[in-house]
């Protein structure tokens, strides 16, 4: 029942570890036209990876000359369709592969959410089957020419994460953005994620501290809903020699916009959270452009 | 001689699930265990979140180690009265920041061991804290617990 609606039921493979040389060549060909790839990771669940991925995509796509792709590889809990206002959309197949679902002309999205017959269908898959779908997302989706491919991941350091890094080794990953909240219980998991990145030689663009303080709209008093009892992301970044891209405060409008499938940046342009997001997005853009410049210099 | 199963002395087994991450499964599991202990019950917590084990820190036993005995692993006992028993992969890591980068099959093998090879002794409640999702950990845990009567699952969510 979980396979219903999937265009490739018959071909879905219980894939092994990384791609074999033939597959690697296929992936390389398909992803050749992708200029920059950014992974959004955490380790901890519920810190705002999907929210951030969606806003990063919206932020980058505000420049109409850029083509942005958002790939949701959270197979069990795909949040991106709802956050992007695309619930109920289906994936169409064409001669050149699966067609992403477009939010804007220059912003395409792919998620397992689009393959389910009902939004409440549970995808109860073991690792190998999840890996197979992730490979398909990379190999069979006709993204076209893409300036930025953003990959939203589930929490953890497991199959999905290993697979995406291995499959994308066929192309080039600019780096990972790691999202956390200020409390130690989150940082504990995020340190593991940073170690994962180092283990698989994935560059870390930086860390985003989400839900960092709440300013009451009435009295303007700031509260720490998730107190940084061990120094928050700032201290962790110092200790681990990783860049802190920024801190984003809690704004109840963020959750509302996500639930309604609207871009928070567009709905609340004056919010301090919007300002933080925009600064962080700009830093990520600069990082990617610098990498590209460095590569061109080498060539 | 039939071996007495390690779960034979456990009266009730509860799963704490969500699907969504970061909603408070580990927090609720911990608070539930503490509340049951206050009510005079013997409680165990099995933390099957292999990638992000939060329970040891929540009970302030993150620096503890597990030992082997004849019937398997001895859980870590929490507090002066030792009325809460805990098993988590957190106790098996060399360093707390070590990432457990395992694919499904390896995770499944450890979960099976956690379910059958921990010498829980006599417990009124065994609370099983799970990671987000509906994948390997969940399938393996439910399969391994099938021979024992599961009391049921508590589902945790946030409002949005």
Automatic annotation (TrEMBL), chain A:
Pfam families: ParA (PF10609). The keyword Coiled coil does not apply. It is found in: Cytoplasm; Nucleus. Keywords: 4Fe-4S, ATP-binding, Cytoplasm, Iron, Iron-sulfur, Metal-binding, Nucleotide-binding. InterPro entries: AAA+_ATPase, Mrp-like_CS, Mrp/NBP35_ATP-bd, NUBP1/Nbp35, P-loop_NTPase, YlxH/NBP35. One of its GO terms (biological process) is iron-sulfur cluster assembly. One of its GO terms (molecular function) is 4 iron, 4 sulfur cluster binding. One of its GO terms (cellular component) is cytosol. Component of the cytosolic iron-sulfur (Fe/S) protein assembly (CIA) machinery. Required for maturation of extramitochondrial Fe-S proteins. The NUBP1-NUBP2 heterotetramer forms a Fe-S scaffold complex, mediating the de novo assembly of an Fe-S cluster and its transfer to target apoproteins. Implicated in the regulation of centrosome duplication. Negatively regulates cilium formation and structure. HAMAP family: Mrp_NBP35 (MF_02040), NUBP1 (MF_03038). This is NUP1A factor. It comes from Rhipidura dahli. The lineage of its organism: Eukaryota, Metazoa, Chordata, Craniata, Vertebrata. The gene is Nubp1a.
From TrEMBL, chain B:
Transmembrane segments: none annotated. Pfam families: ParA. One of its GO terms (cellular component) is cytosol. GO terms for biological process: iron-sulfur cluster assembly. GO terms for molecular function: 4 iron, 4 sulfur cluster binding; ATP binding; ATP-dependent FeS chaperone activity; metal ion binding. The keyword GTP-binding does not apply. CDD domains: Mrp_NBP35 (cd02037). Keywords: 4Fe-4S, ATP-binding, Iron, Iron-sulfur, Metal-binding, Nucleotide-binding. InterPro entries: Mrp-like_CS, Mrp/NBP35_ATP-bd, P-loop_NTPase, YlxH/NBP35. The keyword tRNA-binding does not apply. This is NUBP2 factor. It comes from Rhipidura dahli. The lineage of its organism: Eukaryota, Metazoa, Chordata, Craniata, Vertebrata. The gene is Nubp2.
């Amino acid at each position: 029942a979980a396979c219903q609606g999937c265009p490739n039921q018959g071909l879905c493979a219980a894939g092994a570890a990384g791609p074999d040389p033939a597959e690697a060549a296929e992936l390389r060909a398909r992803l050749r036209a992708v200029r920059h790839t950014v992974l959004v990771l955490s380790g901890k669940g519920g810190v705002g990876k999907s929210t951030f991925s969606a806003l990063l995509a919206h932020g980058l796509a505000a420049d109409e000359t850029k083509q942005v792709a958002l790939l949701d590889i959270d197979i069990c809990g795909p949040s991106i369709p709802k956050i992007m206002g695309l619930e109920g959309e289906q994936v169409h197949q064409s001669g050149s592969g699966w067609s992403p679902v477009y939010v804007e002309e220059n912003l395409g999205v792919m998620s397992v959410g689009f393959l389910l017959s009902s939004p409440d269908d549970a995808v109860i898959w073991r690792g190998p089957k999840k890996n197979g779908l992730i490979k398909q997302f990379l190999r069979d989706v006709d993204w076209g020419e893409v300036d930025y491919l953003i990959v939203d991941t589930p929490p953890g350091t497991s199959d999905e994460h290993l697979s995406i890094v291995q499959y994308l080794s066929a192309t080039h990953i600019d780096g990972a953005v790691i999202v956390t909240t200020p409390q130690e219980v989150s940082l504990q998991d995020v340190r593991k994620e940073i170690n994962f990145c180092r283990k698989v030689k994935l560059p870390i663009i930086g860390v985003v501290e989400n839900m960092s303080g709440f300013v009451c709209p009435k009295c303007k008093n700031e509260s720490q809903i998730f107190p940084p009892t061990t120094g928050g992301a700032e201290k962790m970044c110092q200790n681990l020699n990783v860049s802190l891209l920024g801190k984003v405060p809690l704004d109840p409008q963020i959750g509302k916009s996500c639930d309604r499938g609207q871009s928070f940046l567009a709905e609340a342009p004056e919010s301090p959270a919007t300002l933080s997001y925009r600064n962080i997005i700009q830093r990520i853009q600069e990082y990617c452009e610098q990498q590209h410049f460095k590569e061109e210099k080498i060539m | 001689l039939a071996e007495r199963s390690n779960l034979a002395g456990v009266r009730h087994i509860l799963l704490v699930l969500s699907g969504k991450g970061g909603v408070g499964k580990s927090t609720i599991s911990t608070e539930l265990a503490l509340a049951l202990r206050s009510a005079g019950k013997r409680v165990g917590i099995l933390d099957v979140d292999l990638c992000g084990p939060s329970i040891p820190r929540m009970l302030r036993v993150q620096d503890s180690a597990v030992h082997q005995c004849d019937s398997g692993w001895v859980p870590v006992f929490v507090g002066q009265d030792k009325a809460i028993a805990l098993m988590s992969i957190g106790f098996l890591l060399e360093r707390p920041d070590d990432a457990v980068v395992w694919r499904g099959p390896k995770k499944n093998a450890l979960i099976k061991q956690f379910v059958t090879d921990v010498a829980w002794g006599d417990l009124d409640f065994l609370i099983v804290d799970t990671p987000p999702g509906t994948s390997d950990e969940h399938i393996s845990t439910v399969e391994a617990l099938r021979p024992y009567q599961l009391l049921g699952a508590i589902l945790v969510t946030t409002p949005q």
